[in-house]
Structure formats: structure tokens, C-alpha cells
Specification:
By secondary structure, this protein is mainly beta. It has three helices and 25 strands. Strands 1-22-21-20-19 form a five-stranded antiparallel β-sheet, with no helix packed on it. A four-stranded antiparallel β-sheet has the order 2-25-24-23, with no helix packed on it. Strands 3-4-5-6 form a four-stranded antiparallel β-sheet, with no helix packed on it. The chain is globular. It starts with a helix and ends with a strand. The model is unreliable at 1-30 (pLDDT under 50). The structure holds calcium ion (3 copies). One calcium ion binds at residues 345-346, 349, 367, 374.
Length: 410
């Protein structure tokens, strides 16, 4: 439980420091998660599916099979049966993640390769502990499904990308949203800065084209860098993967194949230029600059790319704002080849969630045509929600950092 408290504390601190609480992270968190008080729209029902453990970070639902995987920060992945809630630990790398996991260290995110049905590849972003003479670092590896054992054997690990040493770094703002789009692997990295106001020098790495931090990075599926990347010719080593810059802590992304939209969430805080910071939903664009740490939210300067949607923390929100929150996290399109069990107004929407400002989490439905909030409280009363995924039947699943997986049926 200590791990989950630490991580949510960091998330909240990163996002909610608008309050400048002298109590610190734990004080802001309040020590324990809020009580469940699930509320959904008329005609919908809320259902608890399973509890995977102590510190959920990410889910993946494989389109071809409908198999649901859920990751725990300590370093394991559980396969969960939709109908029964049965759980099977299918990947265990707790011996590779830091034993003294703190902040955002540990297993960050998981992503199935688009051809998972054929190759069984699961991409896993995690912090690898200091071992075999190699200092602690973040990496993306892929593990291969073994049909015989119905697991991803630890021995199947293939390194995709290795990032710089964290030996002298804090444990904040790693980001690590991941998505495949157009046959490429997009990775969304955080600025690795300390959660202080104003952003310290470390946050300014998000603007540097020599740093992989605070960036959108684009790779071939094997982790090599496409020569078509915009900075491939002018940058060195890992920075050649840069596709766009100016991010703070982008933990989740989703791709909409029929439109080519690749949207991601970026948690906000006060930027250098202003006294208010915003939570953002952004659209991926080549060579875009999303502003951090100079700006947060819309800038209305053609040198920067404004978010598609943004909202402030409660203390900074106008009374008529449709959303407020402290840490935008998961986002998922209701589209693609999914069957759609929800009413038509929600088809093609983007669903987004916020961890909550020490209280409950909400889920909002965003209309992707108007880029406006269609239903601000599609669901409310959830707890520390960190990821959203739709299954093949068009039902939304939510993962809580406390480990609960819940879903919303119509
Ligand atoms: Ca996910
Ligand atoms: Ca921005
Ligand atoms: Ca709609």
C-alpha cells in the first residue's frame, strides 16, 4: 500500500500544488483513498470486475482476443477474465523493478503490439533496478506470450529502448504513455522534474531537442529510430527519436485508426509564465511544441500547439467550468472496430478521467468533432482512476490505482 500512496501522492503533488500545501504530498493525499460512491447516468450500471493488488498503473485489452491485462506498479501483469473476474499473474518482473520503489518508479505502462494475435508481443515500460553493473534506468521491453504456460516468461524479454540513468534523478514525471499509430511506436515521456513551483531547471529539459524528456518519441516496433523522424538528421543518439516537445507528465495515449488521431493526456501545473496550470488533452502533431514549462493550457501563439481540451484545479476553476481536477490520466476513444453498446451520442467520443483532488475520480465524455465536453460526469464517485479502456463489446473499463477494475454497462 505504501507504493500506491507514494505514487498518487506524487501525481497529486505534481498537479495540485496550486494549493501550495505546506503539509506535503501525504497531507495533500489525506493518507487513504476516498470511499467508493459510484454514480453513472440513467440506463447505465456500474460493475466491479476484479482487484489486481495494490498499485494499478495501466490496462490493455487486446482487440483480437478481448483479453484484459492489468499492470501493477510493483512489477507484475494480471490477466483478468471479463465474465468471471478470474485473475492469473501472467508477467512477473518484480525481481527487475526497484525493491525500494518510490514515486513513479516501477512498472509504468503496457501495450499490445497491433499483431498480438500472431506475435504475442506485450510492450512494457518500467524502471529497471541497478543490476548487472547497469545503473537504475527506465526502459521499454517486449515480452512474448507463451501459449503453453499462458504467461509472458520473464526470459522472453527483448530490450526495445533504454533511457538514461536515474541514479541521480528523482522519481517524478516519467510519463510513459505508449501507443502504436501507423505502424510506429509512440512514447510520451515526462520532464523528470521535481514537483516544485515554479518548475525548476530540470523541467526545461522538456523544451530541449537534446533531451528525451518531456517529449513525444517515435520508434520502429523494434525500437530503432525511423530516419523519417523530423530531428533524425540534426540530433544525436536517443534525441533523434523526438517527434514533438514541451510535455510535463503524459501518462496515457490512445490512437483512433479511422481518423489517424493520436491523443494523449498531460498533467498540469503552474507554468513559468502564469499563475494557473491546466490539465490537458492534446493531439499529436509532428514537431509541435506543447509549451511546458513556459506555458500550460492554451497559448494562442502559433509557435505553440494548444491543447484540444483543458481544465484547471478546483481552486482555479471558474464556477461555470464543466470540468476541474488535479491529474488527468487515462483516455480512450470509443471507436474503431468495437461493437458499441452505448447510445449513439457517445460513439466516436474520447473518454477521459482524473485521479481526483484527494476525493473521488470522474470520467468525462468528450465529443471528438467539437472538441468539447459532451458529458462532464459520465461517471463519478470512482477512486484514484488511472486508466480507461474499451472492450470488444464497447464497454468502458476503469483501473484504479488501488487495484480495482470496474466497468460501466448499458
Ligand atoms: Ca491503457
Ligand atoms: Ca501544453
Ligand atoms: Ca458525441
Amino acid at each position: 500500500m505504501q507504493l500506491s500512496l507514494m505514487t498518487v501522492a506524487v501525481l497529486l503533488a505534481c498537479l495540485a500544488l496550486a494549493e501550495q500545501s505546506a503539509e506535503g504530498h501525504a497531507g495533500h493525499l489525506g493518507g487513504t483513498p476516498p470511499a467508493w460512491d459510484p454514480q453513472v447516468l440513467s440506463g447505465f450500471t456500474f460493475d466491479q470486475v476484479a482487484d489486481i493488488g495494490s498499485a494499478g498503473t495501466d490496462m490493455e485489452i487486446v482487440p483480437s482476443s478481448g483479453r484484459l491485462f492489468a499492470a501493477d506498479q510493483s512489477g507484475y501483469v494480471v490477466s483478468v477474465g471479463h465474465a468471471t473476474g478470474d485473475k492469473l499473474r501472467v508477467l512477473d518482473i518484480t525481481s527487475l523493478t526497484p525493491g525500494d520503489t518510490n514515486g513513479e518508479r516501477g512498472l509504468h505502462s503496457i501495450l499490445a503490439h497491433p499483431n498480438f494475435a500472431e506475435n504475442g508481443w506485450l510492450y512494457v515500460a518500467y524502471t529497471r533496478r541497478t543490476m548487472d553493473g547497469v545503473a537504475i534506468h527506465n526502459r521499454i521491453s517486449r515480452f512474448t506470450w507463451d501459449a503453453g504456460s499462458q504467461t509472458f516468461p520473464k526470459s522472453s524479454e527483448v530490450l526495445v529502448r533504454k533511457y538514461p540513468s536515474l541514479a541521480d534523478e528523482g522519481a517524478n514525471h516519467y510519463g510513459f504513455g505508449m501507443a502504436f499509430a501507423g505502424g510506429k511506436l509512440f512514447v510520451f515521456t515526462g520532464d523528470h522534474s521535481e514537483p516544485a513551483i515554479p518548475p525548476p531547471d530540470s523541467a526545461q529539459r522538456a523544451q530541449s531537442l537534446d533531451s528525451q524528456y518531456g517529449k513525444i518519441l517515435r520508434y520502429n516496433p523494434d525500437g530503432s529510430i525511423p530516419t523519417t523522424n523530423p530531428y533524425y538528421q540534426t540530433r544525436k543518439v536517443g534525441a533523434r527519436a523526438i517527434w514533438a516537445r514541451g510535455l510535463r507528465n503524459p501518462t496515457h495515449a490512445d490512437f483512433q485508426p479511422e481518423t489517424g488521431r493520436l491523443w494523449f493526456t498531460d498533467t498540469g501545473n503552474k507554468p513559468l509564465s502564469d499563475s494557473v496550470g491546466y490539465e490537458e488533452v492534446d493531439g499529436t502533431a509532428k514537431t509541435a511544441n506543447y509549451g511546458w514549462p513556459w506555458y500550460s493550457g492554451p497559448v494562442e501563439d502559433s509557435a505553440f500547439k494548444d491543447p484540444l481540451l483543458w481544465y484547471a484545479h478546483p481552486a482555479d476553476s471558474p464556477p461555470d467550468s464543466s470540468l476541474s481536477g488535479c491529474a488527468v490520466t487515462g483516455g480512450a476513444f470509443y471507436s474503431g472496430s468495437l461493437a458499441k453498446s452505448y447510445p449513439e451520442r457517445f460513439h466516436n467520443d474520447f473518454f477521459v478521467t482524473d485521479v481526483g483532488c484527494g476525493d473521488n475520480s470522474w470520467i468525462a465524455a468528450v465529443d471528438t468533432d467539437t472538441k468539447s465536453v459532451e458529458v462532464p460526469l459520465f461517471a463519478d464517485g470512482l477512486v484514484w482512476t488511472v486508466d480507461l479502456e474499451f472492450d470488444r463489446h464497447g464497454r468502458l473499463y476503469a483501473l484504479s490505482h488501488t487495484g480495482q477494475i470496474s466497468r460501466i454497462l448499458y
